[in-house]
Amino acid sequence: MTLLTLAWVALICAAVPALLFLWNILLFREPPVIDSTTPLPPISVLIPARNEELGIEACVRSVLASQHVELEVIVLDDASADRTAEIVRVIATTDARVRIEAAPSLLDGWSGKQQACFALSKLATHDTFTFLDADVRLTPDALARMAQFLRASGADLVSGFPKQETGTLLEKLLIPLINWLLLCFLPLWGMRHFRWSAFGAGCGQWFTTTRAAYEKVGGHAVVKTSFHDGLALPRAYRKAGFWTDVCDATNLATCRMYRSASGVWFGLAKNAREGMAATGQIGFWTVALICGQVLPPALFVVVATAAVFGIELSTDPFGRVIERAIRPFLLTMLGKAWFVSLHPRLHATIRFRQSWLGLLLHPVAILLLLAVQWYAIFRAIFGKPVGWKGRAHPTSAN
Questions:
Q1: Which terminus of the chain has fewer CB atoms gathered within 10 Å of its CB, N or C?
Q2: Which fold would CATH assign to domain 28-169+185-259?
């Protein structure tokens, strides 16, 4: 009977996020196509950059190729030790829309990116801001369509989720889970009908907002200790009484977040304590993800192997009789639970053009994701929270 109970638990825990995914996928749309009859506001594209020589040129040039919108590009060199500033200066000599500025010294209690974004907002001359990570590449119509989405959605802060490019094995397994987690566990309908901060979410790689809303909220200053502005900034907007929204930017932007296994591990770990590994949440995520995503295939393999090789899973004679009687039903239930758990990942793999390896090793990816979260927790317990790019987490800074 224990196996039957576990099978029901697995099926329910797989079905709930799968059903939410199916609802959300209908609501997670691309920004509207460009309406040439409605003029768009000029945009300040604000790019914080720290040691980004590998990608900063491609990022800036993709922005400069934007159509249907007037823009300026401000890159803030945040104490880079490489050629980031030099590369941008060369571009600026050929295009007056680009300028490079030096970041102020990092203040106590601030994370580097949040201080850089806040400083950029003070340098902007236009009243629509786009905060863009230096590893993002935009299509020519991306900025204009995002500006239209900001207007059409009625939100004050909007965020696009780019296509995530992956190379290493750990990237292929873990990075696609960004879209999967969003659509399996955040009710987009609720996000658009209730202003609760718990519904706040976004992708820190690309935000668009207005100067008026940004300044009323307090901008990045209100999330200055955060390493995870993808969650922190939308929630700050909602706490201040503003609306936020998200959109599918798969066909408008690409991003290669990390380029090594260690980059993926520590990059995700630095955000973990503000998301899944936050106090009071890690228990839910551990149970929900293991029961719904790992338990179905694991139990199916165990029961199927026992059936094929005649292995008894119960030590009690009466239990053996019951087990043999319900084994076909168990396999059917577990097979359905396994299929249901994989359906959102399959749909996401096709829709967002993700690696098929992530789908095939989905339970492994879930276990690795949870391992990152618990790693971040233990680091925090021992007083060594995960830093980033040579900087300690602000709460541990002197």
A1: C
A2: Spore Coat Polysaccharide Biosynthesis Protein SpsA; Chain A (3.90.550)
